[in-house]
Amino acid sequence: MNKLISLVMPTYNRDFIIELAILSIVHQKEHTWNIELLIGDDGDDNTENLIDKIINVNPKLEIKYFKMDRISISDKVNYLIRKSNSEYYGLIGSDDIQSPYKISSFEKALSENPTAQVFGQRAFVYHDIIFGNANLWTQNKKLTFFKAGSFVIIKRSLFEQVGGYPKGLWKRVDGSFYKKIAPLKPEICDVSKIDERVIKTSIALQHLDNIWDRKAKGLYKNKPKQLANFYAEPIELNLGNIISAFFDKYNVVRSDLDQIIKHKYCIDEEENVSVETMKKLNVLIVVSLDMREQNGASNIRPAKIIEAFKKTAHNTDVIESPSRGRQRKNIVKNILKSIYTRKKYDICYFEPSPFPIQFFERMLIKWLKFRKTWISYFHRDM
Predict the structure, then answer these.
(1) Structure confidence by residue, pLDDT tens digits, 255-286
(2) Which of 73, 45, 79, 50 is nearest to 63 (CA)?
(3) Phi and psi for 376 in degrees, rounded to 5?
(4) What DSSP line would sit under 92-113, residue for residue?
């Protein structure tokens, strides 16, 4: 048997967190197999430079980097797996810390279960790198397969038999693949029953742009919570022991994330990041100008305001006025939509038309005041 395992890591604009994921592979313990880590990057951030600077101290690890055009996650995964060279592969997240025993536990599991084709675990840790909370997630529903996709290793022949992952998927990539291989009835093995150390050392990270928010994961309140397929319960996490080899880098990443969040949520430098200060605001910008004319003198200020808000994490809607008729339609449409969706704006920046203010603008102002929205006026003729 070729004692090589392939780990494939698709990534997109994760330069703020990917180092921790890579270092968790660099610092694997007790393994005898060789590892190839294939990273597929279709982003436009600093990921490539960060990877070039990582010091690989593991003689049994080879890191391969692929710069790619923007493609779907499943297409990226298919490409990386077909570039790999081993009989077994693991699809790992670029924002997850793999257990230092990931590979060694797989080796033991395969030795004891040579006919198994899928190796995974039904429990792992979700850790909020911003606030420090940690939950132990234990899969207690739909137990026929492993739901924690980043902590699974699969025999390559299954991938070949079903023709790879479904093409063109941007989410639910793992689940869609599992549905394809389910008719084959692959033999599965729970590695945590062979090496229970993987449970509390396999760590998914909550950070800036995860698909599900803290509340959905049971991290918003540090209390036990039943989720769709997992039971989440708070635990104490000793990261200094688990990732001792790169704990200093973890602290640097956490500090950098703190600054990113302050910028994205417009939090004062002296203020602490908290659940309250990280609240996403609904912002409405109303400008009685045609914002397609970016070079107009009157357009420069609102254009910069719109650009600034859209760079934040806040939800920003814009009502502009290519014409009076279009403005009326946009205002009525916005009011009706907010009624239907029960959306309330927290802040409105308002640049009305020259005096007198138009009827539909006055109607919108009354509606916003009724909804207790804070309104900031800027009138060009005042």
Answers:
(1) 999 999 998 888 898 898 887 888 889 999 98
(2) 50
(3) -110, 120
(4) --TTEE--TTHHHHHHHHHHH-
